[in-house]
Amino acid sequence: ASKVVFTLPSTSYGISAVAFSTDGSLIAVASQDADHTVFVYSWVDGALKSQAKTGEGKILCLAFNDTGKQLVAGGVKNFSVISIAGKNMSVKQGQFGSALGGRKVVTCACWAGGDFVLGTAAGKLYRLEGGRKLTGETEVFEKGHVNCLTSLKAPADPEAAGYPAVVVAGEFGVVKILDETLGELKAFDLRAICPTSKSKIVRSACLNKDSRKLLVATKGSEIFEFSTPAGGGDEEEEPKDINAGALIVGHSSDQLWGCAAHPVKNEIATCGDDKKVNLWDLDSNKLVRSIGVGDFARSCDYSPNGHLLAVGLGGLRNGGAAGSYGAPIIETKAPEEETEVGEGEEKRVEEDVEPVPTDPWLKTLYAKGVKPREKEGAVVVLSLLEDEVRIVCSNQDATGYISDIKFSPDGNLLAAASMDSSVYIYNCLKDFVFMGKCVTSGGLPITHIDWSADSAYVMGVGMRNNETQVSFFNASDYTSVEADHEDIVNARWNTWTSSIGRTVAGCFPSGGKDLSVVNSVCRSSDSGLVASGDVSGALKIARYPSLETGAAYKDFSAHSSQGGVGKVVFTKSDSFVASIGVGDRCVCVWDVLVDDEEDDADKEYGLSDDSDYVLMAPVEVEDSTVGSGETGGVEEEKKEDAGAVELTWREKLAGQEAGGYELTDYELQAVYGVSSKAGLGYNLAGDAVYACGGASVIYKGTEKKFTVFSGSDGAVTSLVISLDGKYGLAGDTSGGVKVFDTCTGGLVMDLVSGTGAAGIAAAAFSADGKMCAVVGSDKDHTLSVFSSPSGSWADAVLYAKSSNVSAAVSFVCFADGGDATSLVTGGFNHAMFWTLRGGNISSKKGKFKDGKIQPLTCGASLGAGTGKVVTGGVGGTLMEWDVATCSVTKKTIAHTKCVTSVSPMVGGGVVTSGKDGFVKVFDVELMSSSSFEVGGVCMSAGVDGKTTKLLAAMSSGCVKEVVVDSGYTGSFIDGAKGSWSKGDAGVRALGASGRLSCAAGFEGGVLGGGGDGIVRKWSIGGGALPSGSFDCGAAVGALAVGGNGVFVAALGSGVVEDSDVRTVEGTVLFVDVATMEGKGKAQKDSSSGYPTCAVFGSGDLCYVGMSGGSVQVLDAAKCSYESTVTEGIGGKVVSLDVSSDGALIAVGGDGGQMKFFSAKGEEKSLEDAAGAEWVNSTFIYDAKYLEVGGGGVSSVCGGLVGTAGGSVSVASGDLVVHGGSVEGLGKCGETGFWSFSGADNAVFFWGKR
Q: Taking a C-beta distance cutoff of 8 angstroms, is the pair 80, 133 a contact?
């Protein structure tokens, strides 16, 4: 790859000419300051050698002599001879001489044949023989300028003659090769060789070293390559166009504003003021097709299938960005006084004056004295299906040029934003007939538009300098929609190209007030990055959302400040970013890579592709409140008027006998889900071992059998398997550390009992299995090392303990350190090397390569005897560290995104996983021997002892198994998948990760539903993969199974903006459990909020609790909505049950409210409910549970009690099996019970011992 070796010092003046010395060691530049200073630099070391002022005339060309001691500078009717002596430069004005007809415009210069040679605008060459006076006129072109002179290397023989010495090119397409006396050796006409060239004006020409190939650049932004045999002579063959057309081609006039990325192929389209639309293939980096559209083209967009390209026409020559135009000022003259007409005179009639237009854009043109272009506001649609691009439709409905244009995500509509303050909608299914016009209220030019993901709404951004307006339109009736409308608030936008909005605030500099500095913004399709281009020519990449001005970013420079960057787009799969320059008309394509080279943005995770590791960065926590300043006063007023405060269930039941329930002896027998980040591996028998919540699971896939270790004190955060596969080491959120048998699931040793003060961040076994280490999540990230001399772990003792660094730690691993035991810990911007000797422990900080510090995400030993450790980073790089020197010795790019895990292999080498969806095997030389694409985001990987099988835990909630020899990949475990969503913190159903929101049981199995809209069915005894599923099409908030074999799925999540979950609050689906086929649907308005829980009574009636406090009643037999029981619970319904006779409904609210209602919605007293028999035994507000610990009762069912702390109480004791509050418990017929917690994305099955 190319790299910058020298950069001129920053200056506010332009550079008008540049020249290299003959030996290439010096570079001269001519500044456009008032004195037109010439600077000479040694580019190797960047030293300024000398400088001199040349005068008032602009310098058009520079040339060194053969020794580098003299320069000639030519310009408009002047030239100077500059002598260089060390740091001194002397300037003498050149003399044209009267014999040559006066002063000339010197356009170019070179050194040839022992003299300076100057070219002029009159087509003639002149020599400067030994002084500063022009002599020896040579006419090389009959007409036109001499546009370039390029000197060729002189032969070594000083007596040589007739050799090619100069290449000269002219204004009318003729290129000549001259000898040292300026005699013509060869000439050819570009017009004859390349008749299809866009321009015949040659700007530059150059021969290669052996003079056999010639490059010619034209004013048409083309570069041609010709064969040109050296030596001259009449008998030599004519030059030939080597590439049968231009080698390089670009847009050739005025400005470039339009760019779009193909949705399927690695292709982009650009359109500009040269009236051309160009299609560029990014694999070959070549122009593949082009078409003229007859006028300036300012915007373009591909259809969703890539078959069509829409282009918006119009514009103002050398105009600025769409949002940079000020309000038009129309000067009106005061009416002149009417004069008397004398006898014999006629009254003078004023010429008709064109009236001032009312249209915003036409008024702007009127103020500038410019008429609109012929195709101003036209929309052209191109077909890309044939080899030749063709125009299939053209409409001209707008009066202002089309500043932005976009197809709807479903491809049915096309929206065109115009400078006349309107958005025009066309029907793509009916030959692009004009459908309607969306008009803004503010009269500002529309600069950018975006479609909602459901193709229902268009967002338009109007801008005039710093005046902005964001408008929303209904695409079906073209009416304006308020920003606080529910559909707009909950909308998910298919693209984000608006420079206005909090999510892209970071595209602006800190403290910046000029909103017009950013020309273009583009969010990546995975919503992870945002690219922006500004008026200075800078391209910036930042994480999305970028919420604060001055947020961390990376910037890149390739475009000039003449207009800056006109447009930026992410290409297919976000592999590249394409940027176009307004004034330079360059199209640049940038690889999207996470570079491990350090800069400030990487240090602060400004550009980490891995949001999970942002928490590693140290942050300052501040108290904050959200709301208006009047909130407190309102709350006080409410308190005064509240009257009597309603008693909670505990207060109502105070004094009653507590703790009278009987626990049943159940055990955890099946786990449907996985904690993909905790780690996984194989045991000695080849069975999978993984974590889920507080359970460590041993799963024998061939027999579909679970064995569960449930002795952890909290949710398992770090699980590692010894290299021999015999033991598992589980660290949890409470700080507990347990060693268990990976075959039987039995506890071997409780190394640390959890206290809840701090969890475990990382854990590791030594290669021989006789030592283990854990790192805590406490403020000191304490390192603890345990030893088992026998290796059985029954005799384990604490060997050493030490505080670590304050920065977050993501891994710990053992290494071969010679005569001592060595460990390595690493995390946010650090690596620490630890040495154990006789119970003593010492540490030394690791040295990154070239001092370039970066965050580390994982690590493992490269193998016994290697003395090496391998770490992974957020950018996808693996680093090999030498334990003896504590330094990086090798780096290799393993993944294109974050390395999520590194696991050691028996015999040496490592297995890695990445967020790019690959699992890879590396040998001890850190060479990749195998690579497997598992799809999606892989959070951890494990390997068996023989390297025949790999496990990959995916962020989607499943585990895949890879057979190394064949590469076969299959789903091994499939838990509940969550869809990312940003919701109300109080939404129990989904929370921050779109997790499992509900579960239900039936005879012989369990159901689970969540944010991805899929209800999965697992059969007891059927293994870890679902036996069936049903796609509800929207987030599932509550499930319940009836006695008639039908389950109810209540849809809705309460998720607010920025959600990938489509919510349909109030919709209830009825599905057959056995066949997983839909039976019907019922709809109730969503005013009651989203569903939170559901139960069946003894018949076909189902009761659904809502977030608004109501209970809706549905009939599963009729698949219908029946009634709403109550609106008066005053909070979210979190617990429900129904009496056996259906006469009473028990309702519990999230604030501790407890109420009872009749079937008709009449409130009943606690005494009315005394003695009632309840169908489900799931009502949590009962005196029996008054003294339940663990944060209080959160769910109950029969003989099981779940707590807010994640434990399930059974006869054998309290088992902390869930990572968060146990949000549901229920029966699986007579088979057993189920439990679930959204924190785990999993459903657990409990059977009798």
A: no
Nearest to 147 by CA among 92, 196, 199: 199
Kindly report whether the global pTM for this prediction surpasses the value 0.85.
no
Amino acid, single-letter form, for residue 709: F
Query: 973 and 991 in contact (C-beta within 8 Å)?
Result: no
Q: How far apart are CA 17 and CA 829, in angstroms?
A: 45
Distance between CA atoms of residues 787 and 796, nearest Å: 5
DSSP state of 239: P
Q: What is the dihedral of CA 765, 767, 770, 775, to 10 degrees?
A: -30
Q: What is d(CA 573, CA 279) in angstroms, rounded to the nearest whole number?
A: 18
Spatial CA neighbour of 701 closest among 350, 963, 996, 480: 963
> Which has the closest alpha carbon to 563: 588, 577, 583?
583
Contact (Cβ atoms closer than 8 angstroms) between residue 293 and residue 390: no
CA-to-CA distance for 708 and 673, rounded, in angstroms?
A: 13
| Gap between the Cα atoms of 154 and 1077, Å rounded | 86
DSSP 143-192: SS-EEEEEE-PPPS-TT--S-EEEEEEETTSEEEEEETTS-EEEEEEHHH
Q: How far is CA 580 from the centre of its chain?
A: 20
Average pLDDT, the chain: 83
* Phi, psi angle pair for 1047, to nearest 5°: -110, 155
Of residues 130, 131, 104, the one with CA closest to residue 118 = 104
Whether omega before 229 lies within 30 degrees of 0, making that bond cis, reads no
**Strand ranges in 753-876 using DSSP code E only, listed in sequence order:** 760-765, 771-776, 783-787, 797-802, 809-817, 820-827, 830-837, 840-845, 856-861, 868-873
Q: How far apart are the first and last CA of the chain?
A: 66
Task: Collect all residues with Cβ–Cβ distance below 8 Å to 638 and sequence separation of at least 6.
Answer: none
| pLDDT digits 0-9 by tens, 315-345 | 988 877 776 666 555 554 444 444 444 444 4
pLDDT in tens, 199-257: 888 889 988 887 788 899 998 889 998 887 654 444 456 678 888 888 888 998 899 99
The sign of the torsion formed by the CA atoms of 852, 856, 862, 863 equals: positive
Summarize pLDDT for 440-488 with one digit per residue, the tens: 988 889 999 999 999 999 999 998 877 889 999 999 999 999 988 989 9
Q: What is the DSSP string of 731-778?
A: EETTS-EEEEETTT--EEEEEE---SS--EEEEEE-TTSSEEEEEE-S
Q: b/e map of 588-619 (b: 16 or more CB within 10 Å)?
A: bebebebbbebeebbbbbbbbbbebbbebbee
Please state the rounded mean pLDDT for residues 1089-1100.
88
Helix ranges (H only) for 273-369 are: 360-368
The answer to whether the beta carbons of residues 1067 and 501 sit under 8 Å apart is: no
Q: Which two tokens stand for residue 730?
A: 């589980």
Q: Which helix (H) or strand (E) holds 110?
A: strand 106-112
Handedness of CA 4, 284, 198, 383 (dihedral sign): negative
Smallest CA-to-CA distance from 1151 within 1130, 1137, 1165, 1136 is with 1130
Residue-level pLDDT at 668: 86
